Amino acid sequence: MLSSIKLVSKTRAVFGGSQIFKACASQRVVKQGHFDGDQSNVSCTRRMSGTGFNVPPSAEFVARVSGIATMCKLPFQKTADGLDAAFVGVPIDTGTSNRPGARFGPRHIRAESAMIRLYNGWTRAAPYESLRVADLGDVNVNLFDLKDTCKRIREAYREIVATGCIPLTLGGDHTIAYPILQAVAERHGPVGLIHVDAHADTSDMILGEKIGHGTPFRRCVDEGLLDCKRVVQIGLRGSGYSPDNYEWSRAQGFRVVEAVECWHKSLVPLMEEVRSQMGTGPVYLSFDIDSLDPAFAPGTGTPEIAGLTPIQALEIIRGCRGLNLVGCDLVEVSPPYDTTGNTALTGANLLFEMMCVLPKVKYY
Question: Sorted alphabetically, which Pfam families does this protein's record hold (predicted)?
Fold first, then answer.
């Protein structure tokens, strides 16, 4: 946790290591040797450094464009051992039914995440003072075989959750939720689900196939992975293949909140009801970026007009504080359809918000 700063002059510093912090109310400078204001070696560390938390370098001292593009510039770690939470990429789009490109989502989300600082400015969450977090890199997927990819994802997440680590997933298309939930439910039993999406993703088949980004939650119900009394789907909208797109969801006991029910209002009251519905049992949060209106998030494969706003997205995620979250994902970012990078930037910020509402996170 200690990084060396060599003061070359009063205005210039040379940094050693990757975790450099400005001395302030929550940080302290430990002098090593004589400090004369001109040239010396000092170590800069955080107040909680003795507990071994990973803390990203501050952009006050380390340029955002430098270094390896891990999520939030966190350290890379090969396994989840010793971690409370971890960012994991699953770069596939072979389950996509329309525009491809989500295989590039994790890479672009990581690049845009360099913008994110250490604290949540509004909620006062301090995740890096509460959780040991790292970036585990990407699952080694098979882009030519979706069933094999699902097997690889399931096996990778079994290892992650077996350590007690909470996975925060960078997608990838929404197919990935199915094998992830297989691994999560294997450890925790049937879980509650907060599913934020333009689409219900409960089709039985697409083009004769049982596995794809439109089928994951149908497969999850088939295998008993979900506690159907504790499932809510928020933001659903668009044209459909039947008069009632969501009849099957309602028949399983899901609460369906269509996008039209969210127009022109805060979703804070809705999330109060959702928290009551979820109770104290394990909950998984699955967030498809196409739940947002394409005016805010055009970089996705199956956009639908008249969707949620980024403000409502924050209300939903922040409304999950206090729940027993055992995993989260952010899926369907397709960078080729948004040359500005704003969709990936939004995705990165939503993942940060998810980390901020995990159990044990400290708030000031």
Answer: Arginase
